[in-house]
Design a protein that fits this description.
Elements: H1 10-31, H2 35-46, H3 54-65, H4 81-91, H5 96-103, H6 107-121, H7 126-135
Helix pairs in contact: 4-6, 4-7, 5-6
């Protein structure tokens, strides 16, 4: 919108200036967040929390939403699938006899698996096994 002399018209120049002011205000706001947000972020990090930008948070949610429990690394990779299954049942409070009946195994086989689990996880008893399993999301 140039006039006959080749200059931009006043209304277009005013519009571009106004656009520039709005754009710089938006950039400033996102580049320099309000004090409350900065203080909240500092407090969160001091408390061991993590702060993510909305874009990073969306990508993380997409990543975790797209994977099922079986696709992720097992909680205890040193255990066989059967041992992990038994550990999950221990975490639910089942006795060796109940586990044997549920999995159609002999009591001695379950006892052997439980012993292997305790050895591999380097723990003393099934109570500790149940606690570790629950903390890892099993059971």
């Amino acid at each position: 919108m140039r006039n006959s002399r080749g200059f931009l018209s006043f209304s277009l120049l005013t519009s571009l200036t106004l656009f520039g002011v709005i754009l710089s205000t938006l950039i400033f706001h996102f580049a320099y967040p309000p004090k409350q947000e900065v203080l909240r972020a500092i407090q969160a990090v001091a408390n061991g929390e993590a702060i993510f930008s909305p874009g990073v948070a969306r990508r993380m949610m997409g990543f975790f939403k797209g994977t099922s429990r079986s696709e992720r690394t097992p909680a205890f990779p040193e255990l066989s699938e059967r041992e992990q299954e038994i550990l999950g049942l221990i975490a639910r409070g089942m006795s060796n006899a109940e586990i044997a009946a549920k999995l159609v195994l002999s009591l001695k086989t379950v006892q052997n698996h439980v012993s292997n689990i305790l050895n591999k996880l380097q723990i003393a008893d099934r109570v500790q096994a149940a606690i570790r399993a629950r903390e890892a999301g099993l059971g």
